[in-house]
Amino acid sequence: MPAPFEILDVDVDPQNWTPVVAPFGCNNVAIKNTLSSDLKIRTDLSRPDQDIISSLVQEAIVAPLSGAPFWRDATTSPYRFLPGSTVAYLQTASGTGTVKVRFVR
User: Fold this and answer.
1) Edge-to-edge strand ranges of the sheet holding 58-62
2) pLDDT digit string (tens) for 45-55?
């Protein structure tokens, strides 16, 4: 049986939006800003709106297992984020570094 969760290091910088991609079907994703600067987060690069995850703060994205797939083309999976789907995009306010992202099945 696979582990119930996985923690990945994601490298971020102030010039590029780095995608956070689900390695497997999951319903919970936590992004921990381990940097000394703010971390910008977007869910859609075509829109100007974004949010900030302050230094040393962890933000969780949680969805219940309802049995109803979120993705229109997923007919049987109850997961909110399918394998390979982009959960969010991250960019630092300044400097480069690595943040921790936890995916929970």
Assistant:
1) 5-12, 97-104, 28-32, 58-62
2) 999 889 999 99
Q: Give the range of the structural domain holding residue 83, as residue numbers without chain letter.
A: 5-104
Distance from C-alpha of 82 to C-alpha of 12, rounded to nearest angstrom: 23
Assigned token pair, 59? 């933000």
The contacts of residue 22 (CB under 8 Å, 6+ apart) are 29, 81, 82, 83, 84, 85, 86, 87, 103
CATH code where residue 85 lies: 2.60.120
Q: Is residue 84 within a helix (H) or strand (E), and if so which, with residue range?
A: none
The edge-to-edge listing of strands for the beta sheet with 51-53 is 18-21, 86-92, 39-42, 51-53
- Provide the whole-model pTM: 0.85
Number of domains in the chain: 1
Nearest to 90 by CA among 22, 11, 5, 8: 11
- Distance (Å, rounded) from C-alpha 81 to C-alpha 97? 25
